Amino acid sequence: MPTRWKKVGIVGGLGPLACAYFYARLVELTPADSDSGHPEVMLLSSPDVPSRLAHLSEGGPSPVPALQRVARRLERAGSEVIAVPSVTTQAFLDEIAAAVAVPVIDMLTAVIEQLRTAGVHRPALAVTDGTRRAGRLHQALTAAGLTPVYPDRHDQARIQQCVTLVKAGRSRTARVRFRSLASAPWVSAGDAFVIGCTDLSPLLPDLPPGGHDVGDLYARAILAQAATP
Known about the structure:
- There is one protein chain.
- The chain is an alpha/beta fold.
- Helices cover about 45% and strands about 10% of the residues.
- The protein has helices spanning about 15-30, 50-60, 65-75, 95-100, 105-115, 130-135, 135-145, 155-165, 170-180, 215-225; strands spanning about 5, 10, 40-45, 80-85, 125, 190-195, 210-215, 225-229.
- It has a three-stranded parallel β-sheet, with helices on both faces. The chain has a three-stranded parallel β-sheet with strand order 5-6-7. It has a two-stranded antiparallel sheet with strand order 1-8.
């Protein structure tokens, strides 16, 4: 147990359910035996942030100015560590970090370190179209010696549809569709199923054996950064 927690700021709304679920997992993974043992957390869910997917996939409005505004507001509110719980949004992490003086924790580095520690070599990734197009996660994985496995075009479209359903408030429908993807043939080509999008995290809280969720991996990294001896 740390003697003091740094105050954690969460850039929310990426999407809203994903970040709410991330906060819940942050609470559940905190090594505390009472309410007072948890870190102070500020979650700012701003509906003004343009779609990261639309920008990366279709050249829509840049989300950077809005993301920077959210980060500055969290810093002004006292955040000492900032979390951005969205794999797709990591494409803009450098710009977000440049807007504040406090650490903005890199999700990709945290995820890869923990996958390597777990002995994963060929992660079967369920990620958004935007994450695949941006290529940052793929490049980071391959640079670390991991070989990512992706679904075919049909299953990739089904994954993206699940993300769209979640953002439209239809998570129950998305949950049913996503569960079948965890046992699809392309998954067996890897050595671990990895949920690589926090919008998908709430759809499969009970991971298959050996599975990993980037939201959980990131939550553990944030707690490690926030803990003080």
